Amino acid sequence: MDAVTQKAMTKKSNLKSGTKVSRGSKQWPPAKTVNSNRKQLSELSSTKLMSKVKPIIPPNFVDNLFKQTRFTKKEIVGLCKLFKKLVAIYGAESTSSVAAMSSVALITIPTQGFDRLMFREFLQNEFGITTEEILTDRIFCFFDQRNDGVIHEDEWITGLSVLLKGTQDERIKYTFTIYDLNNDGFITKEEIFSLLRNCLVKHPQDEDPDEGVKELVDIVLRKMDCDNDTKLSFEDFSTSVIKQSLLLEAFGQCLPSREISENFLNSVNSVQ
């Protein structure tokens, strides 16, 4: 029980006690009986509270994720522990940043998972993914399977399975999903332009930087558009990546490097 709650309960008890004493006619039971009753009530209350407390890692949680992902059970346990630590860290940082900008000190930290701002910081700091917001937002949507604006523990672990241990097919499907901005099953010419325009460095001396982007879009389509319909289907994208693996992240970084992935997994196994 925290100090504030204990103080409030003591004050409440004192008030009740004071009322009973002022009546005068009340006969108090022996102290031994009072202590015994209090002990029974305390034990009953503790039992009820404990019955409502969920375990840190539910019994079937690890087994279910073991079936759904490519992580070992040890890695899943480590990821569960790391999730809580990272949410606390990035939640505190996010709250401090917002408070500084808005001059509001009392902001609730979404301890149940990562919100968009926290997740963007996580991608940048832990995985070195420093792409534009358009891509980090798409990565967030990939993780947020419940579509409730928060990445929960199981979603985080399931998403990381693709980023850190995904097969070639899984990684191709993932990157295609990230680049398909409107989720219509195609990466259109307009989407490619938007993605490349955001990730390419613009030079002040360029009279019309968009013209250079348009030329690059045409080059990409000539190389990857197998059926020449001016848009990339999943088959177009997959065929091109299988032929040339560097095309996997052709429109912006959305995966951690192999070295970073290995370092992150090593840190997971050492979490206490």
The tally of structural domains comes to 1
Radius of gyration over all CA atoms, rounded:
28 Å
| Class of secondary structure makeup | mainly alpha
Order of helices and strands: HHHHHHHHEHHEHH
Number of E strands? 2
What is the CATH topology assignment? Recoverin, domain 1
Helix content: 55-70%
Globular, elongated, flat, extended or rod-shaped: what is the shape?
A: elongated
Number of helices: 12
Mean pLDDT score, rounded?
80
Under CATH at level 1, the class stands as Mainly Alpha
What is the CATH H-level superfamily? EF-hand
Distance between the termini: 25 Å
Keywords: Calcium, Metal-binding, Repeat
Region (Disordered): 1-39
Biased composition (Polar residues): 15-25
Domain EF-hand: 131-166, 167-202
What does this entry look like structurally?
- By secondary structure, the chain is mainly α.
- It has one domain (62-95, 108-271): EF-hand (Recoverin, domain 1), CATH 1.10.238.10.
- The protein is 65% helix and 1% strand.
- It has twelve helices and two strands; from the N terminus they run ααααααααβααβαα.
- Strands 1-2 form a two-stranded antiparallel ribbon.
- Helix 9 (189-199) crosses helix 10.
- The longest helix has 30 residues, at 73-102.
- The chain is elongated.
- Mean pLDDT is 80; it is low at 2-9, 14-29, 31-35, 37-55 and 96-110.
